[in-house]
Amino acid sequence: MKSDKVLDAKGLACPMPIVRTKKAMNELESGQILEVHATDKGFKSDLAAWSKLGGHDILEQAEDGDVLKFWVQKG
Questions:
Q1: Is 14 a catalytic residue?
Q2: In total, how many domains does the chain have?
Q3: pTM for the structure as a whole
């Protein structure tokens, strides 16, 4: 999936992946897509809750070994 920005949050522990995601999302326009790579297993539920609260859509998610990948469209 094509993304407008890629965020590498691998190796970061809670709450840093979601903090970095929020910062990166603030740099995007509505409708643009942020691709996030993280290794914190708790990030999956954090991202789901944060996206719902912020009106963003998780378009796709995948696992590549230990790396979780998410494509989030800014609401």
A1: yes
A2: 1
A3: 0.94
